[in-house]
């Protein structure tokens, strides 16, 4: 007979993959021995998340499947929560799609919490405020602690002695990407020094010839790559949150977005951006596909030589 978990936390987060990886890393750190966490997210994200013994991930298709309908999703929550023996429910999205889950938790008298969304602070950042918006990691940790799930452990750190350097210059929006020609120059320099640059991305992303590529990897293969990596160069994308999840020393490059927006991953990720914040930076919290100025000034400082120097500071 299976041993009953001492606590069972239900969690929901749809949104982008980077947001889900971010939350997944937080959940690992609040799960104590004997706890069980069930996370609901989009099916394509559920397939890609790294496995963890305390976290069970389920995919709910809220885009094309039956659960895109409000009442169908609410009916699912009703059936699942009644049988899940939950001790708490956490809405890690705080969106109209997840609101129905909180209604059902309230009806069933399940203690619940939800992540705060600092919209006022983020809008102030877009208007030029110097005070950073609250960090997304801290917001989840605080909300979960208030629910009775405080941080109980840190992510595991392993010694990294190989020569693989992940280079992930791609992102979902153009203002978050690192120009491929600069990434190629860095790869050439690293290769000349005896490292093995590996370009990581999706199936439709580009990579320069002459280097190992890892485009559109399966979840198993990507997991193995991150575990083998000595370091990484990433953008404001899911890759920076994966670097944090696997505790890979990384340099994160910021262009149209900026750490003051609240989505910078903690150490061992080192953040690089313009020496002085431009008056248009960030142009968007989540990224955009064009430059209002037309000159991409935020990208100009992100030269391969600067990134190589940042890697030196990570002892690479």
Strands ordered across the widest β-sheet: 8-7-6-9-10-11
Could you name the CATH homologous superfamily of the largest domain? Glycogen Phosphorylase B
Mean pLDDT rating: 94
How are helices and strands ordered from N to C? Answer: EHEHEHEHEHHEHEEHEHEEH
**CATH architectural designation of the largest domain:** 3-Layer(aba) Sandwich
Q: In CATH, what is the class of the largest domain?
A: Alpha Beta
Main sheet attributes: strand count, strand direction, barrel closure: 6 strands, parallel
Domain count: the total is 2
Number of contiguous helices: 10
Q: Round the Cα radius of gyration to an integer and report it.
A: 20 Å
Number of strands: 11
Q: Output the structural class.
A: alpha/beta
Q: Between the first and last Cα atoms, what is the distance in angstroms?
A: 49 Å
Weakly predicted, low-confidence segments: none
User: What percent of residues adopt helix (DSSP H or I)?
Assistant: 25-40%
Report the β-strand fraction as a percent range. Answer: 15-25%
Say what the CATH topology of the largest domain is: Rossmann fold
Described by the principal axes of the CA atoms, the overall outline is globular
